[in-house]
Write a structure and sequence with these properties.
InterPro entries: CB (IPR044068), DNA_brk_join_enz (IPR011010), Integrase-like_cat_sf (IPR013762), Integrase_catalytic (IPR002104), Integrase_recombinase_N (IPR010998), Tyrosine_recombinase_XerCD (IPR050090). GO terms for molecular function: DNA binding. Keywords: DNA integration, DNA recombination, DNA-binding. The chain has 15 helices and three strands. By secondary structure, the chain is mainly alpha-helical. The protein has two domains: 104 residues, DNA polymerase, domain 1 (Orthogonal Bundle), CATH 1.10.150.130; 233 residues, hpI Integrase, Chain A. It has a three-stranded antiparallel beta sheet with strand order 1-2-3. A hairpin with a 4-residue loop joins β1 and β2. The longest helix has 20 residues. The protein starts with 6 loop residues before the first helix and ends in a 7-residue tail after the last helix.
Length: 344
């Protein structure tokens, strides 16, 4: 009879068995990719052992992470997961799961998608008129100005916001409780755990929005462990899925311009609803909003080292995944920084 392993224990055993067959870099990539999966499993109350997994769990994981990580990261994570599950099957921990996993399309994995500064300005201007100081307005303003991930925005408590000094603190608060507990504190973890903790300065226009939100529509609520979330809904701290859907819904061009760039009939469009906003080919996911923010900061002449510290991303990753500037844009920026005039 096969032994029972939790997802974390199975991954540890798998990596231990393969560490002599793989290079250090490949082993690191497997550990990182599979870590995304085990982190997700830890929040699923029905998954106690690796044998509890089924096809729907793999599909749910893929859909959950799709808006949370870069396309290439998702592709590599699913590839690593499939290889790991094959190993689990060889040990009798699972049956027939790996062969039915559908990988993300390779073209999608390399596709560049970001929110352009012009679109971000138009969106924020629209929200400033019609959704001013709502929690959705605050979330998108923080994501664009500070390049915060969804998880980081959601993690903020009121005490993390400092109006007079114009900055926010980010803290890794993973929560407590066992997998078996139906009421465990899932916490608000940050992507790189303690390494993601930092203080981020905010522009004055963002501070004004956050101040007016706190003084206005923000609900005075606390969560189950007594924390006071900065962003609140009628149910308390907004869920990550809720925040993702709001980003997808509000980055549809028809939302903030009243026009469709792909000539669809807006009223009858299948994406013309909050629940189906991700079906809009012109809306962007939160990660793409972050990519656009990082590129915008680079285009303004800020160094990669500064952007790296501000937005919790290494300079190597910036160069590989986030620096979407054309060579012409880089050249023009150098001209402006060196105050070189163009010849007539």
């Amino acid at each position: 009879m096969a032994r029972n392993f939790t997802p974390e224990e199975a991954v540890e055993r798998y990596l231990e068995e393969r560490k002599h067959d793989l290079s250090d870099s490949t082993l690191y990539n497997y550990k990182s990719n599979l870590g995304l999966f085990t982190d997700w499993c830890s929040y699923q109350s029905h998954i106690q052992y690796i044998g509890d997994l089924d096809q729907f769990d793999v599909s749910d994981f893929k859909m959950y992470k799709r808006d949370d990580v870069a396309d290439a990261t998702l592709y590599n994570a699913i590839m690593s997961l499939r290889t790991f599950l094959k190993w689990c099957e060889s040990k009798g921990l699972l049956e027939g799961l790996s062969e039915n996993i559908m990988l993300p399309d390779k073209g999608r994995a390399s596709r560049v998608e970001k929110l352009d500064p012009e679109a971000a300005d138009a969106l924020l201007e629209y929200m400033g008129k019609y959704e001013y100081a709502t929690y959705q307005h605050v979330a998108i303003a923080l994501m664009w100005d500070a390049g915060l991930r969804i998880g980081a925005v959601r993690s903020l408590d009121v005490e993390d916001y400092h109006s007079a000094e114009a900055y926010v603190e980010l803290h890794h608060r993973p929560g407590k409780g066992s997998i078996e507990s139906l009421h465990k504190d899932r916490g608000t973890p940050l992507k790189n755990e303690e390494d993601s903790e930092r203080e981020v300065n905010l522009h004055e226009w963002v501070v004004e929005i956050v101040d007016d939100y706190i003084d206005g529509p923000r609900g005075e609520v606390t969560d189950k462990v007594g924390r006071s979330p900065l962003l609140t809904t009628s149910q308390g701290r907004p869920a990550r899925t809720t925040l993702r859907r709001h980003v997808r819904a509000r980055t549809r061009p028809c939302f903030y311009t009243g026009e469709c760039p792909v000539d669809r009939e807006i009223e009858s469009c299948e994406a013309n609803s909050w629940a189906n906003a991700s079906d809009c080919p012109e809306s962007v996911k939160p990660h793409s909003l972050r990519r656009g923010a990082i590129t915008a900061w680079l285009n303004e002449g800020h160094s990669k080292e500064l952007v790296s510290d501000r937005m919790d991303v290494s300079t190597d990753v910036i160069e590989e995944h986030y620096d979407q500037r054309t060579e012409g844009e880089k050249r023009q920026l150098r001209r402006e920084l060196f105050e070189m005039e163009e010849s007539d």
